[in-house]
């Protein structure tokens, strides 16, 4: 049983530096132990603050490079250079580009047309809603997709004499399913991809739709199981469901189609590699502003700054872990106890699945990925399956209302309880975990 808890000790390894060194081969001379103590101390404090959210996540993230540079682990330039990283600019560009589809009414119009075709059948409406939200979440902000479809789903369910509580929680889960299909589907995918490029550049980055190896099966399995077994997987009907004001669809006119066209052109360029990711995202966002699909103010408002700050701040942590030798120390410690790649993979995915339900999935990714890459490299394994596994298990979180913004958004409208999320989400958490064990090591082998 001791092995099952070993990885949980990694975050606390700063308390056991002598044990780690004694249990493994002598670490390289480049390890700076005072700086290692500082790095692990900052990481532990950041993890506690991410978990408790005593202060906003963005503030915690910015304090990380502040602390590391002030305490001399990294230079001021090293601390803040990540804020201009191309991965950060890609995320910013995609947030602005996605906002154009909402500002012009393109996303709302697509959702309205498709959902209105569902008719009065509960199963038909459920499957239509799941597939629609999963598809839109593969390309747009999950919370935005859930927010615009919530009033529509409640209204259509009422007209068909159906209980909205039977529909809303499954569609929140669908947002997580679909978010696993592409690079831009969820923040964990983008964060993991950026950290991978920094810590293991020789392995490159994941392609735009490479995540679909996992995301598409998860989405299809979700839609099929919800359709076949609603009695067991869908919450019971409730009459006291909150009413939401119908969202007015902006009359974007020709701009609506321009924004939609620009968005899908950018997706094609990214998927085919015709234009570099950062250039495609930024060019698309600027075209939407220049063609008056949205104003500069709307573009800025569409950026999820918490994700941006969190990603940038934790990039400085990954740099500090490498420079101080903390990453090497962790790798020696873990490798001295765990030699089986599959056991390591299973343990890491389980830890990620637990953490992502009790803290931000983006924060979970930002903490776990910098830890796992040096471990994989120390074991002469490819970091790709581990990084992909963490990103997907962090994104697929179903067991608490705080796990994702989509889960939170349906809590009050569906009149759900915390236990509803545990009861119905546990099954999907197990499915997501099992699917990662079946698919990821086969698509991305452990041996480079």
TrEMBL record:
Subcellular location(s) of the protein: Membrane
Pfam family membership, one: CitMHS
Transmembrane segments: 32-50, 57-76, 88-107, 128-154, 174-196, 208-229, 262-290, 302-321, 327-351, 358-377, 383-403, 424-444
Cleavable signal peptide: 1-22
UniProt keywords, alphabetically: Membrane, Repeat, Signal, Transmembrane, Transmembrane helix, Transport
Predominant localisation class: membrane
Domain spans labelled Citrate transporter-like: 48-371
Membrane topology type: Multi-pass membrane protein
A GO cellular component annotation in the UniProt record: plasma membrane
Gene Ontology process terms (BP): transmembrane transport
Protein name: Citrate transporter-like domain-containing protein
